[in-house]
Design goal:
This protein has a single domain, classed as VC0467-like, CATH 3.40.1740. Strands 1, 2, 3, 4, 5, 6, 7, 8 and 9 form a 9-stranded mixed beta sheet that branches. By secondary structure, the protein is of the alpha+beta class. The chain starts with 8 loop residues before the first strand and ends with a helix. The longest helix has 20 residues. The chain contains 5 helices and 9 strands; from the N terminus they run E-E-E-H-E-E-E-E-H-E-H-E-H-H. Strand 2 and strand 3 form a beta hairpin.
């Protein structure tokens, strides 16, 4: 892991961020290493697409006897056909990555199979796509170094089950922005 790893943190875009996808975004970083970083954007439900978890299950031919449904989120602008679930740590498989003591991510369909059998995690969000950074890109954005500017710099907030699953999508960015600013101000003193 890197000295300044952002793994297990939520990146919060600044109010002046003008990047289309990341405007008013909160991105949970699942992995950060010397090869780069990846995570999922927590507060971008897919609204312009008539698709949800039921549709995903039907598409892959999986029965849904418990009639489980949930919205889909745009996890990021990369690998848009990739599906993964961010979930509480009361369930795991061999492909599960534990991000914090409260939150994990699973990138294979084992979690979907567990959900439809009533044996999955108690809390979850399903994502299509990822947010990714190549080696050095996230570090450059955090420093506002060329070719990035200070407006590319992310603020950070802690990952908790509450921050990930319990705050309404429309309230998440302002809530975590306030928390991130408070944490940053405390660092100054």
């Amino acid at each position: 892991m890197l000295l300044d790893s952002y793994q297990g943190k939520i990146l919060v875009s600044q109010p002046k961020c003008d990047a289309h996808f990341f405007k008013e975004s909160c991105v949970l970083i699942a992995k950060h290493s010397q090869q780069g970083a990846w995570g999922v954007t927590l507060n971008k439900p897919i609204k312009n697409m008539d698709c949800d978890l039921k549709d995903v299950l039907e598409h892959i031919g999986m029965e849904n006897p418990m009639n489980i449904n949930a919205p889909l989120y745009a996890g990021g602008p990369v690998e848009k056909s990739r599906v993964c679930l961010l979930h509480s740590n009361d369930w795991s498989s061999s492909s599960t990555i534990e991000i914090t003591k409260d939150v994990s991510i699973t990138t294979d369909i084992s979690v979907l199979a567990a959900l439809v059998q009533g044996q999955g995690p108690s809390k979850f969000k399903i994502f299509c796509g990822l947010s990714t950074w190549v080696n050095g890109q996230l570090e450059g954005e955090m420093k506002g170094a060329e070719p990035w500017s200070p407006q590319h710099r992310w603020l950070t907030a802690p990952v908790s089950e509450h921050n990930v699953f319990d705050i309404d999508d429309n309230s998440l960015w302002p809530s975590l922005l306030a928390e991130a600013v408070t944490l940053e101000v405390k660092e100054w003193f």
